[in-house]
Amino acid sequence: MSEDCLFCKIVKGEIPSEFLYEDDSFVVIKDINPAAPVHLLLLPKKHIRSNNDLQKEDGKIISDLFMVAKKMAKEQGVNESGYKLLFNVEKGGGQVIFHVHLHLIGGWKK
Ligand code: 5GP
Ligand code: ZN
Predict the structure, then answer these.
(1) Ligand 1: does its nearest atom lie under 6 Å from the Cβ of 89?
(2) How far is the CA of 27 from the centre of ligand 1 (A)?
(3) 96 lines ligand 1 (CB under 6 A)
(4) Sequence-ordered strand ranges (E) for the chain
(5) 43 C-alpha vs ligand 1 centroid, how far in Å?
(6) What pLDDT sits at residue 1?
(7) pLDDT means per 10 residues in the chain (110 residues)?
(8) Which of 29, 8, 9 is nearest to 19 (CA)?
(9) For residue 96, which atom of ligand 1 is closest to its CA?
(10) Pocket of ligand 1 contains residue 88 by CB under 6 Å
(11) Taking burial as the number of CB atoms within 10 A of a residue's CB, which of 28, 79, 86, 110 is the most buried?
């Protein structure tokens, strides 16, 4: 837990948010400023600042994250139409919340 981290506060329920999915390791929320009809944020509960801070022991978190993405894509009905999975890394990469999260973006009209 990082005290000033918005996503840690969301994960801990200190900032009320709708969880589309939760398990021991992750929560999934809707992006507050969606870039597409479906725009979810998949948040590991563990505070990791960015991809640069991943440790070998975090490998399971990252592989499980992609399984959550697969499940959420199906639930949102974008698995067949297709979607983007995106990590922004540090400021130059567009990261504004420094708690690792995976964007799941899709649902564009054909
Ligand atoms: P980043 O640019 O760090 O990869 O993505 C951060 C994302 O978090 C942005 O797409 C932004 O719209 C979203 N966001 C920022 N604050 C909040 C919030 O309080 N609630 C939710 N649900 N999303 C947020
Ligand atoms: Zn955090």
Answers:
(1) no
(2) 14
(3) yes
(4) 21-22, 26-30, 38-44, 83-86, 102-106
(5) 11
(6) 60
(7) 88 96 98 98 98 98 98 98 98 98 94
(8) 29
(9) 3
(10) yes
(11) 28
Residue indicated by tokens 């999915």: 21
Ordered by where they begin, the domains of the chain are 6-106 (3.30.428.10)
Minimal CA–CA distance to 47: which of 100, 104, 9? 100
Do 99 and 49 touch, CB atoms closer than 8 A?
A: yes
Evaluate: CB of 92 within 6 angstroms of ligand 1: no
| Token pair for 11 | 């994960």
Q: Which residues of 94-105 are buried (b: 16+ CB within 10 A; e: fewer)?
A: ebeebbbbbbbb
For a substitution probing ligand 1, which of 10, 32, 90 has the most ligand atoms within 8 Å of its CB? 32
Q: Mind telling me the catalytic residues?
A: 101
What is the token pair recorded at 24?
């021991």
How crowded is residue 1: how many other Cβ atoms within 10 Å of its Cβ?
Answer: 10
